[in-house]
Amino acid sequence: MTRAAPTSPASTNPRPIPGRIGAVLHVLAVLVAHARHFAATATTRAAVPEFATAAAVFGTSNLPTILHRMQRGVLRALALRDYLLARAARGRNLRFAWPQRVELLPHHRPPAGPARRPRSAPLRPRRPEPALLDSDNPDALRLPTAEELAAEVRSRPIGRTMAYICLDLGIVPGFCDGEFWMRVEKTLRRYGGRLGCLYRVRERRADAYQRERDRRPDTWHIDWRDLRPSTVRLALGYLIGETPPAIVPS
After folding, report:
1. How far are the Cα atoms of 71, 133, 197, 216 from residue 212, in angstroms, in the given order?
2. Of 28, 71, 51, nearest to 237 (Cα)?
3. In the chain, N or C: fewer CB atoms in 10 Å?
4. 191: burial class by Cβ within 10 Å (0-12, 13-18, 19+)?
5. Is residue 191 part of a domain?
6. Is residue 24 part of a domain?
7. Boundaries of domain holding 145
8. What angle do CA 249, 241, 4 make, to 5 degrees?
């Protein structure tokens, strides 16, 4: 079984890529390659019954909606790649995120600073993150600008951005080669991503997909919960982390 080879950005970067950044860049390269292969073959694969397994992770079988989400995931992945390359060019590596639930002992806590002045006006509510929304929500199809994506990447933990990329690209453990999923999971855990968020959204999308299928009795015979590697290979063409098969021109 062949595996996807990482791209080497070192040829365009005068500094060597720090190891942690290089590991994240490898994951991003595999995810972007998968998204592009999926988009190039989706029209053909959508005609086979096993495609339901791939569609279910998006909560809908509507192909334009799926491809729109994946386009946002690719743009976000490229924005994260550019941020990491710029960080590497400055000679800076990544730092592991501090565990969120570690209770600091009193002598570890910083001294209390002066009381903050109350804000004169309430903060504007943030836009909901479209990667977390269901397909029937109009905001789920919002495509941020390049400037918005760059700002989001700079202001969020790397792991959270990676989690949103996975949600937009429909990445779940059963779709991945085991070793590659371990790389994804390690990235999430090390850099502030939340696996629980991924699984909650996955469950919600599965419920939405089941409701969609219930309205179409002609699809009841298809087992979209089948995540055997043989089924995934029929749905996607390969397991993510393997080398995507060559696309034969039609």
Report:
1. 23, 16, 23, 7
2. 51
3. C
4. buried
5. yes
6. yes
7. 16-96+130-236
8. 70
Give the range among 45-54, 58-67, 128-137, 206-215 with minimum mean pLDDT.
128-137
Q: Is the dihedral of CA 164, 166, 170, 174 positive or negative?
A: negative
* pLDDT tens sequence across 163-206: 999 999 999 999 999 999 999 999 999 999 988 889 999 999 99
Element (H, E) at 250: none
What average pLDDT score do residues 14-43 get? 94
pLDDT digit string, tens, across residues 131-172: 888 777 877 778 899 999 999 999 999 999 999 999 999 999
Residue 125 inside a domain? The answer is no
Q: Which of 149, 175, 15, 142 is nearest to 78 (CA)?
A: 149
Which residues, other chains included, contact 71 with Cβ-Cβ below 8 Å and sequence gap of 6+?
A: 39, 143
pTM across the whole model: 0.81
Check if the beta carbon of residue 23 is closer than 8 Å to that of residue 187.
Answer: yes
What is the Cα–Cα distance from 41 to 180, expressed in whole angstroms?
Answer: 22
The structure tokens 């009381």 sit at 115
Distance of CA 168 to the CA centre of its chain: 6
DSSP 3-44: BPPPP-GGGG-SSPPPHHHHHHHHHHHHHHHHHHHHHHHHHH
What are the structure tokens assigned to 238, written together?
């390969």
Instruction: Give the residue carrying structure tokens 């990482």.
Output: 6
Kindly list the distances between the CA atom of residue 114 and the CA atoms of 111, 117, 121, in Å, as whole numbers in the listed order.
Answer: 10, 9, 20
Q: How many domains is the chain built from? A: 1
**Buried b or exposed e, range 157-188, using 16+ CB within 10 angstroms:** bbbbbbbbbbbbbbbbbbbbbeebbebbeebb
